[in-house]
Write a structure and sequence with these properties.
The chain crosses the membrane at residues 49-68, 80-104, 110-132, 144-169. This protein is mostly helical. The protein contains 9 helices and no strands. The chain has one domain. The radius of gyration is 17 Å and the shape is globular. The two termini are 18 Å apart.
C-alpha cells in the first residue's frame, strides 16, 4: 500500500498535469462563491447568508467528480462539474450554517468549534468517496464517515490540508481560490481510491 505522503504528492502531480482544465474548473467553482461573498460583505441576514452556501456546496460536489477523474490519470471534462449532488450539498451547507450560528451564541461556541472540526474531518472523504464510487447523498456521507474511521490519520491530513489551503487563499487575497479546492479534492480522491482498492483486495482474498 502506498504511503500517505506519496499519495499526496501523486495527487498534486496529477492535478498539475491537468492544470489548464483544473484552473478552468476552479474558476467556475470560485464564481459560485460570489453570492456568499456579496451576502457576507453586505451584512445580509443570517438565513440569507446560509442560503448562499448552497451554490458553493453544489459546485464543490461537481468539482469532486472532476477531481476523481483527474486522480485516475484521465483527461477530465468540464461537463463533469454539472454532476452535482444536491443532498450532500444541502447537508454540507446546513452543517456549515449551523456551526457558524453556534459561534455567535455565548456558551455554544465550543459546540460550534467541535462541529466545524467534525465537518473538516469527514466532508473531504465523503466528497471523494461519492465521486470515486459514484455514490450520492447520505450514502456518500456514510462512506466518508467509514473511511475517516478506518484511516483517521488520512482524514486528519485532509483536514489539515484544508486548513492550510484556507489560509493560503486568505493570504493571497483570493488569488489561489481557483487552485486550492481542486488540488485538495484531487488528493482526497487519490487517497480514497487507494484505500478502497485495498479494502476490495482484502474482501476478495477473504
Amino acid at each position: 500500500m502506498n504511503s500517505l505522503p506519496w499519495l499526496a504528492r501523486r495527487g498534486a502531480e496529477l492535478c498539475w498535469h491537468e492544470l489548464p482544465r483544473t484552473l478552468a474548473a476552479g474558476l467556475l467553482v470560485a464564481l459560485s462563491a460570489l453570492p456568499l461573498a456579496v451576502a457576507a460583505s453586505a451584512g445580509a441576514p443570517a438565513w440569507m447568508v446560509a442560503l448562499t452556501l448552497v451554490p458553493l456546496a453544489l459546485a464543490l460536489t461537481g468539482l469532486a467528480r472532476f477531481a476523481a477523474v483527474v486522480a485516475r490519470g484521465d483527461a477530465a471534462r468540464l461537463s463533469l462539474l454539472w454532476r452535482v449532488d444536491p443532498v450532500l450539498a444541502a447537508v454540507t451547507a446546513a452543517g456549515v450554517a449551523l456551526c457558524a450560528a453556534l459561534f455567535t451564541v455565548d456558551g455554544l461556541r465550543y459546540a460550534g468549534a467541535v462541529g466545524a472540526a467534525a465537518l473538516l474531518f469527514v466532508l473531504p472523504s465523503a466528497f471523494a468517496y461519492g465521486a470515486v464510487r459514484d455514490r450520492t447523498g447520505l450514502e456518500a456521507l456514510r462512506g466518508g464517515l467509514i473511511l475517516a474511521a478506518v484511516r483517521p490519520a488520512w482524514a486528519l491530513t485532509l483536514a489539515a490540508l484544508g486548513c492550510l489551503g484556507g489560509f493560503a487563499v486568505a493570504a493571497s487575497g483570493g488569488v489561489l481560490l481557483p487552485v486550492v479546492p481542486a488540488l485538495l479534492l484531487t488528493i482526497a480522491a487519490t487517497q480514497t481510491a487507494e484505500l478502497l482498492d485495498r479494502v476490495d483486495e482484502m474482501q476478495n482474498s477473504s
